[in-house]
Amino acid sequence: MTTPDQTTCTTVILAAGEGKRMRSDTPKVLHPVAGLAMVNHVIDTAISTGSDTVAVVVGNQAERVEAVVRGHSDTVSTHIQHERKGTAHAVLAARAVIEKAGGDLVILYGDVPLIRSEAIDSAREALRSGCDVVVLGFHTAKPTGYGRLLTDGAQLLAIREEKDATDEERKVTFCNSGIMAFRAEHALDLLDAVGSGNAQGEYYLTDTVEIARERGLKAVAIEVPEADTLGVNDRVQLAQVEELWQQRRREAAMRDGVTMTSPGTVILHHDTQLASDCIIEPNVVFAAGVSISSGATIRAFSHLEGATVGEGAVVGPYARLRPGADLGKSTKVGNFVEIKGATLGEGAKVNHLSYIGDAEVGAKANIGAGTITCNYDGYNKWKTRIGEGAFIGSNTSLVAPVTVGAGIITAAGSVISRDVEADALAITRAEQKNLPGKAKQLRERNAATKASKKLDGSSK
Ligand code: UD1
Ligand code: MG
How confident is the model at residue 455 (pLDDT cuts 50, 70, 90)? Predict the structure, then answer.
């Protein structure tokens, strides 16, 4: 027998299910919430509660699920449940891990991604205060389909599955979330004692409660909010879970000092980093890999991905930052500007209607409206370098590879395809001609043409 060591924790995550109601070729637990596969949220929560061993039980499309969970965390082991014979049978697929477990054993579900580490902590505290089996339960107005928690005061007597329950038991509204914690020293004996003599002919994890009581062990149920135990069975529930996740994360950001003027319209990614005192205006979407520094403002309707925004920078409205956009302190990126794979030095401005891709923009450079870096020749991407304090005139095309020095000016409308040395003026447009009276003459000629077409009925 292993020595119980209350400081260690082993978590088994059940992720073998088919998830038919998702109507998807993708295994259910791989559907993303805030851009991260559901099962990986559960792994992160397990790790944040101090689990030193995390075992994921896979079955349906096992190889795909294994690849995703192993790619997420190299401390995770995977175990295949070849046949689906119930939740106890699924947990036992990780027998090798449970045999070695000391301390606490926690069972989580790969399709219940909102479970909070605080709930797991409270279950583990109950183990430490003398309980042997702990179940997280919730009260609900719609208990149909859930296992009912049959209690006597603080004691948990049994969990009755819907299909095995009497009418009286079905009236109980305190339900099993599915999440359980065991003192690891008893877990294997309890699991091995579970039989399949029930309405579904399955090995129920929930039967461990009655078995534990028969053996004089102590079982309790701890109540958690229903929302934290939401399971995903179909895409409607996936959207509900996504919305709850977003709400939680927005609230956490606001409590950490982020201003959101219309939080319900801001979409965060699981890895979005928002420093205190940044301001996020309505309808901003954060895709993967965005970090916003203190004092920055992201104005309405901007879309950011793989971007770093420096202190005090202002982005948008209607800006698009793509992977590799690195905006320095106090930079400005205005409306209808796209930045990709480009650094903007401190105080640089790209205020209107521009594409800056694969570029280095020096500090305090001013990029005029409509400037385009022509970075792609159909085969390769090339770099544009713009020196400090450069003034790029409106509607300049910078044909990469090209380097323009510090303090240069390009005349509006220029196509710059050769390097420009520091402090030079570059201009590449045809000289202007003014033809006196010519506009009036053209108008008169065009009006006459229109009138003659009307006369012979050939207009339109
Ligand atoms: C289970 C509980 C029920 C609880 C409910 C909460 C049991 C017997 N019942 O019921 O008390 O109220 O969850 O949602 O535990 N799985 C496997 N392999 C299997 C069977 C299940 O990996 O052989 C996984 C499923 O993919 C799922 C989880 O375990 O993630 C729960 O299984 P499910 O069939 O949904 O159990 P329920 O009948 O909902
Ligand atoms: Mg279920």
Answer: confident
Q: What is the pLDDT of residue 4?
A: 45
Q: Is the pLDDT of residue 2 over 70?
A: no
Verify that 311 and 208 share a domain, yes or no. Answer: no
Examine the domain organization and report whether 45 and 140 are in the same domain: yes
User: Would the pLDDT of 5 be above 90?
Assistant: no
Mean pLDDT over all residues of the chain?
Answer: 96
Q: Do 290 and 208 share a domain, yes or no?
A: no
Within this chain, do residues 173 and 303 fall inside the same structural domain, yes or no?
no
Tens digit of each residue's pLDDT (9 = 90 or more) over 53-105: 999 999 999 999 999 999 999 999 999 999 999 999 999 999 999 999 999 99
- Taking the whole predicted model, whether its pTM rises above 0.90 is answered as yes
Asked whether residue 14 falls in the same domain as residue 53, the answer is yes
Query: 3-state class of 27 per DSSP?
Result: coil
Order of strands across the sheet with 314-315? 259-260, 279-280, 297-298, 314-315, 332-335, 349-352, 366-367, 391-392, 409-410, 425-426
The predicted structure's pLDDT at residue 3: 44
Q: Is residue 435 part of a domain?
A: no
Question: What CATH number has the domain bearing residue 395?
Answer: 2.160.10.10
Q: Which ligand is nearest to the CA of 230?
A: 1
Q: How many domains does the chain have?
A: 2
- Residue of 72, 139, 270, 352 with catalytic role: 352
DSSP 446: H
Residue 64, helix vs strand vs coil? helix
**How far, in Å, from the CA of 180 to the mean position of ligand 2?**
14
Domain hosting 42: range is 9-229
275 shares a domain with 218 = no
Question: Are residue 303 and residue 194 in the same domain, yes or no?
Answer: no
Per-residue pLDDT at 458? 62
Cβ < 6 Å from ligand 1: which residues? 14, 16-17, 57, 59, 81, 84-87, 89-90, 109-111, 146-147, 159, 161, 175-178, 204-206, 231
